[in-house]
Design a protein that fits this description.
Number of domains of chain B: 1
CATH superfamily of chain B: MetI-like
Strand content of chain A: 15-25%
Number of strands of chain A: 18
CATH architecture of the largest domain in chain A: 3-Layer(aba) Sandwich
Structural class of chain B: mainly alpha
Order of helices and strands of chain B: HHHHHHHHHHH
Number of domains of chain A: 2
Helix content of chain A: 25-40%
CATH class of chain B: Mainly Alpha
Oligomer: heterodimer
């Protein structure tokens, strides 16, 4: 009898604890490893998810339209080389310390001193002055039109907390708290880091003291897991044990999950997919050879390959070098298309004889879709008489290879997005001769006219000036064809029914900035 | 010969092994005739017909760029068999010579040769092949080199042990007494007595070489596209499980058939040649 009673008691306790667990809203999602938690080093998608939830920025992109709205700032004035921000006075860090102008100055100094991640965005900011507790001024060396948009990549860190946790390093500031911040959060964000393993999982919990308050239906706990296999994610979602997939799932898997009744979330308009041609190495140093390849490429087949359902695709037809919707982009009615005759005509004018060369097409090992795109391009080129080989390159090796034109493959495949949503951050890094030889610029392009137009685009004071500079740039890039402009990319995520993510499902709530849609505070779980 | 046929026929598993191997070898040899889409082993893409399940037109379905999986598996068999044959043709003579010399001479020669062999054996085979492929470019030839480097020590060990036993036999002593050269004793007297064991091991190994080569290409270190290869087919398809099951199941079965067939045949050979030890 006592045994029966204790059994019943145990069952009741189990049922109660299950109820308690149900009451907690848990969000489970995945990304590729590694998750870099230090906001000064954040660059890729996983890092940015962490950054936008643990930290806040002075401004945010406006939802559903162009422009920016104040966030940690209350307002700002300025143009040209001087911008002054008035900060909100009601913001506290997760540690309880109040957020002040000193923290903004410290965050900027820290980012630029460490010099990693997206710190290059602030290359022409000379200094930052804390004028009083809640006023801060940025001094620029020259006019930089996209400055305000760049601020979405300047997360504000808790100076006092970091100063208490400085590690060893050269100079007065030691390691600038790198070691501490790679394991702990020090932001004002709506989520607090509970545990963090960059190869495995980050667990975050809601921050009750968030200055904007957090929706009660937003997740209480978030589990961000790294490096799950596509087949694993597919099974977990089908079993209701995973909530949102990464965008890197193959289109077919997304299609199967959508057919099972899951939702497809989208984020687009900030980048494109490119085949990048090495303009410094034979035979693609000849513009006619490059134009032959651009004309031979089958733009329509790609769209079939990346379509997920009749309405949703991982991309739309490219119109040129600039993603549709940005300054200088062509209207969507002018989609690029295949022209085999033009390809043959260009090839005939190329000074290299196609029977004497073979081009190497590389693809990034972590992105299986690119292998298929490589096979498509190979078949397209074979049709006009160009032979080619395909080479799989791991991402880590690729970045090193492209530093030198001799080691850079003839053709590389890269997805590039504007990290701040502004075309400057899409195009400058790819095509300015001073930036040649990075993963974004395996073209090694050196063209005076392109450089001039890129500089004009970032210095333009009015939208009209910027539009005309980028429009001329687009024409020039179509004429000299350093890249095949494959398609305008759109990130697609699979989410379980019952998860509501307005920023990724309603165009009027979209941010126009990569990853910002993953602000957990704006999500709802039923 | 009659005894061999008798042994094979008396064991159903040996019959199965012989049939499987016959199927594998014939499909590889006659791929050009059997494949419904012979051009699909090369630079062909067809995005109007990709990722389709098995049908009358495509017996094993189509892959992610619209190529006929059945045709590609036939050509992949050809490649696997060539790879297996070349690897054994290179690894066996090296391994056998090292083993014979070490076993026959003994002393410091044996010490140096067998400790070198041990060094190779102490590294896990796949790790060794992976590090070689990491340094070299991933091509078919380099794949063969990598697998060869990890394979010869097994033959040294086998032949070394056999030689140790044989060198004390009366016929070896007799040959030495009448003044035969060391070369003659090793290769004309001892070696022929080791052949049955070597042959058995080669048959068993052919399956494992195919498996290791597939593992290498599964890891992206083997043959590069568009050349069809069983290991890379399985690797690509694994991401699309369970919906596009044909992408993984058929190439996986193809590997199974080849490895299993060679194993069964090896077992039968062991009995026929009397090398069961």
């Amino acid at each position: 009898m006592p045994r029966l009673l204790s059994g019943l008691l145990a069952c009741a306790l189990l049922a109660l604890s299950a109820l308690a667990a149900n009451a907690e809203r848990v969000l489970r999602l995945d990304e590729v490893a590694v998750g870099e938690l230090d906001p000064a080093k954040a660059s890729d998608y996983a890092d940015s998810i962490l950054m936008f939830n643990v930290y806040d920025t002075l401004v945010l992109p406006r939802q559903g339209g162009p422009g920016h709205t104040p966030h940690l700032a209350e307002s700002w004035v300025g143009s040209g080389t001087e911008y002054t921000f008035t900060l909100r006075s009601d913001v506290s860090f997760q540690s309880g310390n109040p957020m002040t102008a000193e923290d903004v100055k410290f965050s900027f100094d820290r980012m630029v001193s460490i010099g990693q991640g997206l710190s290059f965005l602030f290359g022409n900011v000379e200094s930052v002055d804390a004028l009083d507790t809640y006023t801060v001024r940025f001094n620029l060396s020259e006019p930089y039109a996209p400055f305000v948009s760049a601020l979405v990549r300047l997360p504000i860190v808790d100076k006092q907390l970091v100063m208490n946790n400085l590690g060893d390093g050269e100079g007065e500031m030691g390691d600038w708290g790198s070691e501490y911040l790679s394991q702990n959060g020090a932001g004002t964000g709506a989520y607090i880091v509970k545990s963090h393993n960059p190869q495995d999982e980050t667990v975050m919990v809601k921050f009750d003291g968030y200055f904007l308050g957090v929706n009660e239906r937003a997740p209480d706990t978030v589990r961000l897991r790294y490096g799950l296999e596509a087949a694993t994610v597919r099974t977990l979602i089908a079993q209701g044990e995973h909530d949102i997939s990464s965008q890197w799932l193959p289109p077919e898997v997304k299609k199967a999950l959508a057919a099972d009744g899951n939702q497809l979330l989208t984020e687009g308009g900030t980048g494109s997919f490119y085949f990048k041609m090495n303009t410094m190495k034979e035979p693609l140093d000849d513009v006619n050879c490059r134009l032959a390849i651009s004309s031979a490429f089958d733009y329509e087949s790609v769209l079939k390959l990346i379509a997920i359902t009749d309405e949703i695709s991982e991309g739309t037809a490219a119109t040129g070098a600039i993603t549709a919707g940005m300054f200088g982009a062509k209207p969507t009615s002018q989609a690029l298309s295949r022209d085999v005759e033009a390809a043959k005509a260009h090839l005939a004018q190329c000074r290299h004889d196609p029977s004497t060369f073979s081009v190497e097409i590389s693809w990034i090992a972590e992105v299986p879709l690119e292998e298929r795109l490589a096979l498509l391009l190979q078949a397209n080129l074979a049709e006009v008489g160009i032979s080619s080989t395909i080479r799989k390159v791991p991402w880590a090796a690729f970045a090193g290879m492209v530093e030198n034109p001799d080691n850079t493959p003839n053709i590389s495949q890269i997805f590039v997005t504007a990290v701040t949503g502004d075309p400057d951050t899409l195009l400058y890094g790819m095509y300015h001769s001073s930036k040649a030889g990075t993963w974004q610029s395996p073209e090694h392009l050196s063209d005076a006219q392109v450089d001039m137009l890129l500089d004009a685009g970032r210095a333009g004071e009015t939208d009209g000036e910027r539009e005309s500079a980028y429009s001329a740039l687009n024409d020039r890039l179509l004429t000299i064809a350093p890249s095949i402009y494959g398609f305008d990319s759109q990130a697609v995520f699979v989410a379980r029914p019952g998860i509501s993510v307005p920023a990724l499902s309603d165009p009027n709530m979209a941010f126009g900035l990569d990853t910002m849609g993953f602000a957990f505070r704006l999500m709802e779980i039923e | 010969m009659n005894r061999a046929v008798q042994i094979i026929l008396s064991r159903p598993l040996s019959i199965a092994g012989s049939v499987l191997i016959a199927v594998v070898v014939l499909s590889a040899a006659m791929a050009d005739l059997l494949a419904p889409f012979p051009d699909h082993r090369g630079t062909v893409v067809d995005f109007s017909n990709f990722n389709q399940p098995p049908s009358r037109q495509n017996l094993m379905g189509t892959d992610l760029v619209g190529r006929d999986l059945f045709s590609r598996i036939l050509y992949a068999y050809r490649l696997s068999l060539i790879l297996g044959a070349v690897v054994l043709a290179l690894a066996v003579p090296v391994g056998v010579t090292v083993g014979l010399v070490a076993g026959y001479f003994g002393g410091w020669v044996r010490f140096v040769l067998m400790r070198t062999t041990d060094v190779f054996l102490s590294i896990p085979p796949l790790v060794l092949a992976m590090s070689i492929m990491g340094v070299l470019e991933p091509t078919l030839t380099n794949g063969m080199i990598a697998v060869t480097v990890m394979w010869w020590p097994w033959y040294s060990r086998l032949v070394h042990n056999l030689t140790l036993a044989e060198r004390e036999e009366g016929y070896v002593l007799a040959a030495e007494i009448i003044g035969a050269s060391r070369f003659h004793v090793m290769f004309r007297e001892i070696l022929p007595n080791c052949v049955p064991a070597i042959l058995t091991k080669m048959t068993l190994d052919l399956g494992f070489v195919i498996l290791i080569a597939s593992s290498l290409s599964f890891l992206g270190l083997g043959v590069q596209p568009p050349t069809p290869d069983l290991g890379s087919m399985v690797a690509e398809g694994a991401q699309y499980l369970p919906d596009s099951w044909w992408l993984t199941v058929f190439p996986g079965l193809a590997i199974l058939v080849a490895v299993f067939g060679f194993n069964l045949l090896g077992d039968a050979l062991r009995e026929i040649l009397g090398t069961e030890q």
